[in-house]
Amino acid sequence: MPAIEREITRFQDFLSRQGQKLTQERTSLVREIFSTHYHFEADELLFKMKQKSVKISRATVYRTLELLVKSGLVRRVHLGEEHYHYEHVRGDSHHDHLVCTACGSVIEFNDPELEQRQLDICARKKFTPTFHNLQILGVCDSCHRKGEQPASPDRVMTIGEGAMKLRK
Amino acid sequence: MPAIEREITRFQDFLSRQGQKLTQERTSLVREIFSTHYHFEADELLFKMKQKSVKISRATVYRTLELLVKSGLVRRVHLGEEHYHYEHVRGDSHHDHLVCTACGSVIEFNDPELEQRQLDICARKKFTPTFHNLQILGVCDSCHRKGEQPASPDRVMTIGEGAMKLRK
DNA sequence: ATGATGTTGAGACTGAGTCTCAGGTGCGGA
DNA sequence: TCCGCACCTGAGACTCAGTCTCAACATCAT
């Protein structure tokens, strides 16, 4: 899959610019992230690697994610839960998220007018924005049709449900 | 200060509607929250109570915050850090936040046009929103004038800096 | 006074993430 | 080719925010 190779090259460029190396571990993490996951949690990634019998420690997963975020290949997002989620960036533009509190699905959207409005607000407040984070929680169409009730804002279903956590 | 008494009454009403009681501990927490804090962290509140020699356990602080959130007197917000912050709601309308990554200050704003635009997006995606959360990170005017550099998005200064954490 | 129900504090526990450190890896230069 | 050094890794201890448990306490209606 040439697309993934391109991401790996981009990561390597980023690393070598700061005297860091593209190791076996980092390569397999990038490969995993860009091949199967979209929105994922750090521990979920760790678990997947374990499943595939690729031995990578928790520390390396976190360290690599930090590098990927710095390199711009991966974005760190809040989706209404305590901890972070990550998503890969494939050169596509910025977007925000609608998160279904019933089934955990995530819908992305990008609305230039909304973005512009935010810039206007910042200008009005003499604030220099670097970054923003918007999640809208609610119920998606298919859950709504099933009559799902919205969960209360502080009780949101886990996104990466599938990933049974196993430590050690 | 009569305003605080009004909030306490509102909380009591909420509690008694579900057969719960307004205890001494709960009262003093509400008093503390509504008198001095605006955006605060749970542990910061615990620390303040300790400073004032009001003995309240960690568990009670968290339990009371949960009740306050449910009652609508307090809102739980993400301000770009791992953990939650809380803010009291004084009958004022919904707002979002500009968070300065240099000095940690928080500017609130409420922009009906922005809110409306979000509703439009949800309608377009057939999504039923219940709640949303927008933080814009960046540098505030006074920090900008001091030539402060924006921190990277994943390294944000603590909002409640003052509160030295001391456990136990 | 009794019992039912609700509340509390202490401290054990959890889950996500960070840090440390000894050992491993790999590349540039002699 | 070999060496040295900077970089990288895994294991596990640690931290921090938040939750849970449980025994003791408070309150209220009967």
Give me the secondary-structure topology.
The structure is a homodimer of 168-residue chains.
Chain A: H1 2-17, H2 24-35, E1 39-40, H3 42-51, H4 58-71, E2 74-77, E3 85-88, E4 96-100, E5 106-109, H5 112-124, E6 128-139, H6 141-145
Parallel strand pairs in A: 4-6
Antiparallel strand pairs in A: 1-3, 2-3, 4-5
Chain A binds a DNA duplex (30 and 30 nucleotides) through residues 19-21, 23-26, 41-43, 55-60, 62-63, 82-84, 165, 167-168.
Describe it.
- Two copies of one chain form a homodimer.
- Chain A has 168 residues and is α+β, with helices and mostly antiparallel strands.
- The first copy, chain A, has one domain: Dna Ligase, domain 1 (2-Layer Sandwich).
- Chain A has helices at 2-17, 24-35, 42-51, 58-71, 112-124, 141-145; strands at residues 39-40, 74-77, 85-88, 96-100, 106-109, 128-139.
- In chain A, the strands form two sheets. Chain A has a three-stranded antiparallel β-sheet with strand order 1-3-2. In chain A, strands 5-4-6 form a three-stranded mixed β-sheet.
- In chain A, helix 1 packs across helix 2.
- The radius of gyration of chain A is 18 Å and the shape is globular.
- At the A-B interface, helix 4, helix 5 and strand 6 of A face helix 4, helix 5 and strand 6 of B.
- Strand 6 of chain A pairs antiparallel with strand 6 of chain B.
- The structure holds a DNA duplex (30 and 30 nucleotides).
